[in-house]
Amino acid sequence: MQPTSARKALPCFDEPAFRAVFNTTIEHRSYMAAITNGIEIKEEDLADEWTRTTYLPTPKMPTYLLAFTVGTFDYTENITANGVRFRAWSRPEAVNNTRYALETGSEIITYFEDYFGIPFPLEKQDMIAVPDFAAGAMENWGLIIYRETAMLYDPEVNSASNKQTVAVVVSHELAHQWFGNLVTPKWWDDLWLNEGFASYVEYLGVDFTEPTWGMKEQFVINDLEPVFELDSLGTSHPVRVDVGAPAEINEIFDSISYNKGGSILRMLNNILTEEVFTRGLTAYLKEHAYGNADSDDLWSALTEADKDDGGLDVKAIMDTWTLQMGYPLVTLERTSQRTVTAYQEHYLSNPSEGVSQEYGDQGYLWQVYLQYTDKTTNNFIMPNSAWMKKERSIEFELADTVDENDWYMVNTYQYGFYRVNYDHENWMRLTDQLMTDHKVFPNENRAQLIDDAFSLARTGNISMETALNLTRYLGNEKDLLPWEATLDYMSYITNMFRLSGGFGPLELYMQALVEPLYDSLGWNDTDEVLEQYNRNNAIRVACYYRVTDCLDQASKLYQDYMQNPDNNPISNNLKTTVYCNGIRDGGQTEWEFGWNKYLSSSDSSEKSKWLSALGCSRQPWILNRYLMYTVAEDTQVRSQDVSSVLSAVGNNHIGIDLVWDFLRNDYDKIYDLFATSIFTFSSIISAVPQNFNTEQLLEEWIAFGEGRDFGPATRTYEQGTETIKINIQWMEKYEDSITEWLMRAL
Ligand SMILES: [Zn+2]
């Protein structure tokens, strides 16, 4: 019911600061399970196969965490190490697929009891997977509700990344049982505290149960780097933002609250050290347990915890990161053998547009903790450090052993939420180091170099050539993170080049780049999770850019499956890619095969793989019919999945115009069907303009918006406009120079 829907169920003071005890009884059909926040204490048989169940009164809690479910669900059960009754529910036919969430969840709950230093506050924890749910999950106290793909895992059918999604979402929601539920924000302007916090510690919980997954390094590619782009728009917003009406509250359930919130807490943890951070956290939770608090309360608990260690003023630091939008670009210049000048400025991907609103009185200056090392020192674990305390520029010294020809690197492990630019000389040295021995840099920093460089090239801070030169070493790169960072930008270039003469050279370059990785990883999918992810990338990219061997293998697998539909020969991790290729290079028969598989599968993750693969077709009429299916009266596509269909078709270069026509022609229908859902409608509006890059499309987009009410997607629409403008400028600036670079590189 978060944020403002409890009032639809019962009359109440429906704001987070009003806590109340809820005494619940539910009258329900006897064969159905009725679950709510508290543990059941009494069951009475009523007439005609009805039952009245009474539950233990809840602790004092806010209305938005209230929940009840009644239906035919089955469960699996564990008792946690500290005696909490833990159940995982689903449709009866899927109940075996709750096992993984149950096992990993009951370990994580115990881990968090230890991490937060506070026992789990309730007698029981239920988790339930329901077939149609707009959000990923909702952390109702004692009764967490999930969409099926976020909780059910079938090792026979699902991929490693499906499994990771389950672990991560379960960990996220369990973290809320303390952060959000036990201690609740005073008002929604501090929503980021809930979501940022859960987005950070979800990684710690999963790292505890699945130590081989490299969760802590995955943070930078899954949470930190992806939000940099949105937060460099002038239409972004501060993590802490004034909100009043329900539509405004709904708007801030976005990646600024989740990803940026999590990233700045990870940064703060690194500044304070794990020990100080968790000590302050426990004090904060204990002081405000069963009550409400705001950001300032957390900052004062952390300042107190750091009193005898660093003695930092946490509020002064964090206000610069939470009260103003965006983040700094730190530009470095080496002025002598040891001396480096650092200069900070608000980083905007489209500076000519300015910022939509001035926020707070921070003046777009930040307290930036610079951690750095150099080639001779080569210490990423215990780096040197310097503070920029809202100064426009500072000077700092490299280690006294540094050689004048050494590279230096700032933002070790990418703990800081800022981008880094170097003098040209240093970019060259870093590039040389990558070519000779890239392993000197941690995975996080190799990904960071690529991510920063492409972004800085896009904004004109460095040449595109400098960024592209960094990719040359990738022939030797076997790790996931740098590839993820690269593919992100390469797919941007690819989408921008869809109608450009540069597409040919790009395809050839990408073939050459990925082939060594593709050859070394092969198709045999039995090793550690990070390798499996990397293989999936290699095969996806090799097939996308039409490496012949990849196309042959994928098409053979798809044909084998069609001939023997009861026996799927495709590795679970590679299904998305193989399905997409089968449909892309096939015709009507291949598409119908996929559609029927989508309809007949009872597994939500499998269904969602088919949904995205079905958008890979090259037949316009098939794609158009597919779009129409989403709004048909007897639609077979759940509303939670509609934006996936639109993204799949919109990312297909043949489908982009079709999606646009679809949105314009059927807007009223789409609005009526989906605008009541926070997540669904915004993701539809944001999916469509991502790859628009011509003046004509911009005019059409603006005309489309004139006088139109986008409801909860108002900001999303504006961000769409800005995205198109950035794409247009990017094309004007880089189409030719990238094409030339690619031709030379071949
Ligand atoms: Zn959450």
Automatic annotation (TrEMBL):
Residues 1-65 form the Aminopeptidase N-like N-terminal domain. SUPFAM superfamilies: Leukotriene A4 hydrolase N-terminal domain, Metalloproteases ('zincins'), catalytic domain. Zn(2+) binds at H172, H176, E195. Its EC number is 3.4.11.-. Pfam families: ERAP1_C, Peptidase_M1, Peptidase_M1_N. Its main location: membrane. This is Aminopeptidase. It comes from Strongylocentrotus purpuratus (Purple sea urchin).
